[in-house]
Amino acid sequence: MRVPEDIVSFLRKEDDFLIATHINPEGDALGSSIALSMALELMGKRVILYDRDPVPYFYRFLPGHERFSNSITPEASRISNLILLDCNDPERAELSDFVREYRPFTVIIDHHETRRDSGDLRWIVPSAAATGQMIYHLIKEMGIGLTEEMATNLYTAIAIDTGTFRYSNTDSSVLLDASELVNAGADPSSIATALYDTWSRERFELLVHTLNTMEIRKVEDKVWVAITVVTREMFQRTGTGAADTENFANFPRMIDNVLVSAFFREIEDGWKVSLRAKGGINVAKIAEAFGGGGHRNAAGYRIKGDLDKAKEALMSLITQKSVTHYS
Asked: What residues have CB less than 8 Å from 202, skipping those under 6 apart?
């Protein structure tokens, strides 16, 4: 993977950085951010990590997770450089007001297929399996030695966004990078255990309730769509929260004839919809039609209003577009 020289020059030249990622962060966002912050600090740089939302409890095995601040401190507002990781718009990090007020020089490092025009400097590689893979090559290009802590974060980032090397974005370069991270100290077994075998009972109960909402619809004898739902009442009943739903959208996709999984999570004024796909449908294009975005096989958007109307809006769009159109 070629790392742009202007990105390297920028990081070497500047001395202070605010690193931020999208709200409701997952493994790629967290691992990429922590690893880059560690690398920059080894270069003698001053770094502040920010995310609006707390690190989910099941990611607190990541070394350095405590580095994140959930508020913009006076110190952070004085930093002149903003790096957005795993998102391509300050709005996704809820930093639009911050950018307008303080006007930091903004760098976007991301691998999402849908693009925005944000940022003064952009490095966007949709073919990258994870932002963590990009950060790994960036750290190598800058000649910074990987520590075990950095390797653990980057391996986790890549593992999450490849479905632990099960998704179609897994190629030989991904496996080679993962191998080098293992050589640097990442432990695949302990990371897999932390990611997949440490669920709380409450989270598991929420998954059971969610799967009980599943309905499967058929479109044009080609596309089977599985729809699942989590409401705020279900969170209250199980003592869980939004972070506990990570990966829920992937479960219905395991059904052999389901090509699209649509997971509706209730939010303040409507629904957060997570789409997962296999086969020929590009769900990034579907999400983009609703003002969202993402990857070919994993995307999302927000929609206001009634649940039934939100479902029908999605199904109407899928019905209008053939599998061939999205290929």
From this structure: 238, 239, 240, 244
Phi, psi (degrees; rounded to nearest 5) at 255 = -65, 130
Distance in angstroms (rounded) separating the CA atoms of residues 124 and 7 = 11
> So what's the pLDDT on residue 319?
84
- Whole-prediction pTM value? 0.92
8 A C-beta contact, residue 283 and residue 263: no
Q: Is 286 helix (H, G, I), strand (E, B) or coil?
A: helix
Domains of the chain: 5-196 (3.90.1640.10), 201-326 (3.10.310.30)
Q: How many CA atoms lie within 13 A of 13 on its CB side?
A: 9
Rounded Cα–Cα distance for residues 304 and 290 (Å): 11
d(CA 123, CA 119): 10
pLDDT of residue 113: 75
Q: Report the half-sphere exposure of 59 (CA within 13 A, side-chain side).
A: 29
Rounded-to-5 percentages of helix, strand, coil across the chain: 45, 20, 35
